């Protein structure tokens, strides 16, 4: 294998591919990046067996140089190749596999020789595109991920809750995440009629969010084994989480007796000010709501208490006292990203939902907690 390539573009695709590589690789080969030079393209692959990323550069492009002088393939430890390419002070680099797996990387007056691994030792990864696919704008996909994935569970006791459920039903796509104490749901309209029900690991979606460009059109292809996010010349492929996702629609209330409208920034700041007052590591906030006054309070036997009147709040309904995890409400408000939010309540010990006044396609649900003070 022998090729010449522009340093900047090569480092960019190396960085993207390396996102799939874990520090605790299940196989030695998965700690490396597989590089294949063939005819008019240079293809890079990285994987940790759960997430796999494949990206490529093509010859004949105007914004960078790529010359394939000899076809071949090699696997090089990702941390070494990234460091070498980053530090070589040259516009163009040369790569040559010299003797078996010994690889020479050079640019200007610098030259490195590094031991690689034969590509035949790299596990085969099937990047065949699933038949079912749809497209979505990059910035919209990032918004979906940000508004849902934070609500996934970080505990492996119920693996299916560590991912976001994507349920395509006709021209409607519902994206749901829950850890059984809170829930985030985003509904979007699809241009194509789809029928699928998959759960994608939150970790994989975090990598997708880092990789996508807001202006790009992303193609998502799915089957019952994997999901592919096709971003330009990059394919991010992820395994799916096995198991039946819980039926969450029945958990979401449809009728309400109380409603609170408030400036999101004011409430975020009020929760943040009181967040240091905790019981057993949890900041529990209490809303005392009436049509004449809305008060946010916290109390801890060890730390103390706080009380704040919410001047921007408007409440309709009978008087209501309800307590909940402050961090859950804080996370939900940040995800909604709207100037004015609406809380809809059914009662003091029933789940309540939070929505942006300007967008009813996304909702956050939080379970209240019982307090004895």
Textual characterization of the structure:
This protein has 373 residues and is an alpha+beta fold. The protein folds into 3 domains: 120 residues, DNA Polymerase III, subunit A, domain 2 (DNA Polymerase III, Chain A, domain 2, Roll), CATH 3.10.150.10; 118 residues, DNA Polymerase III, Chain A, domain 2, CATH 3.10.150.10; 114 residues, Box (Proliferating Cell Nuclear Antigen), CATH 3.70.10.10. The chain has 6 helices and 24 strands. The longest helix has 12 residues. The radius of gyration is 25 Å and the shape is elongated. It starts with a strand and ends in a 7-residue tail after the last strand. The model has no long low-confidence stretch (mean pLDDT 94).
Write the SSE topology.
Elements: E1 2-6, H1 7-18, E2 32-38, E3 41-47, E4 51-58, E5 66-70, E6 72-77, H2 78-87, E7 92-99, E8 102-107, E9 110-115, E10 132-137, H3 138-148, E11 163-178, E12 182-201, H4 202-211, E13 217-222, E14 226-231, E15 234-239, E16 258-263, H5 264-274, E17 284-289, E18 294-300, E19 304-309, E20 314-316, E21 320-325, H6 326-336, E22 340-345, E23 352-356, E24 359-366
Antiparallel strand pairs: 1-5, 1-7, 2-3, 2-6, 3-4, 4-15, 7-8, 8-9, 10-13, 11-12, 12-24, 13-14, 14-15, 16-20, 16-22, 17-18, 17-21, 18-19, 22-23, 23-24
């Amino acid at each position: 294998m022998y090729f010449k390539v522009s340093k900047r573009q090569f480092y960019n695709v190396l960085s993207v591919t390396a996102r799939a590589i874990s520090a605790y690789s299940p196989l030695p080969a998965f700690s490396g990046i597989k590089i294949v030079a063939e005819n008019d393209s240079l293809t890079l692959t990285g994987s940790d067996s759960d997430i796999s990323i494949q990206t490529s550069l093509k010859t004949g492009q105007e914004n960078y140089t790529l010359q394939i002088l000899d076809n071949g393939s090699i696997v090089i430890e990702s941390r070494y190749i990234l460091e070498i390419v980053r530090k070589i002070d040259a516009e163009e680099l040369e790569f040559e596999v010299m003797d078996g797996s010994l690889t020479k990387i050079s640019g200007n007056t610098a030259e490195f020789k590094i031991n690689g691994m034969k590509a035949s030792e790299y596990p085969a990864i099937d990047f065949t595109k699933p038949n079912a696919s749809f497209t979505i704008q990059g910035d919209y996909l990032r918004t979906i991920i940000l508004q849902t994935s934070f609500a996934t569970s970080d505990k492996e006791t119920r693996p299916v809750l560590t991912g976001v459920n994507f349920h395509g039903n006709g021209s409607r796509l519902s994206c749901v995440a829950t850890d059984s104490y809170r829930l985030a749901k985003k509904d979007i309209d699809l241009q194509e009629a789809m029928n699928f029900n998959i759960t994608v690991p939150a970790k994989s979606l975090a990598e997708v969010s880092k990789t996508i460009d807001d202006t790009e059109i992303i193609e998502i292809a799915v089957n019952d084994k994997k999901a592919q996010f096709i971003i330009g010349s990059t394919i991010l492929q992820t395994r799916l989480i096995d198991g039946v996702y819980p039926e969450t629609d029945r958990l979401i209330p449809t009728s309400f007796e109380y409603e609170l409208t408030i400036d999101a920034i004011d409430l975020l700041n009020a929760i943040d000010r009181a967040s240091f007052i905790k019981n057993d590591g949890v900041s529990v906030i209490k809303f005392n709501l009436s049509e004449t006054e809305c008060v946010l309070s916290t109390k801890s036997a060890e730390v103390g208490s706080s009380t704040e009147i919410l001047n921007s709040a408007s409440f309709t309904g009978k008087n209501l006292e309800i307590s909940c995890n402050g961090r859950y409400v804080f996370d939900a408000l940040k995800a909604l990203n709207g100037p004015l939010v609406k809380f809809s309540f059914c009662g003091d010990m029933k789940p309540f939902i939070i929505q942006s006044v300007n967008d009813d396609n996304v909702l956050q649900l939080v379970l209240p907690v019982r307090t004895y003070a």
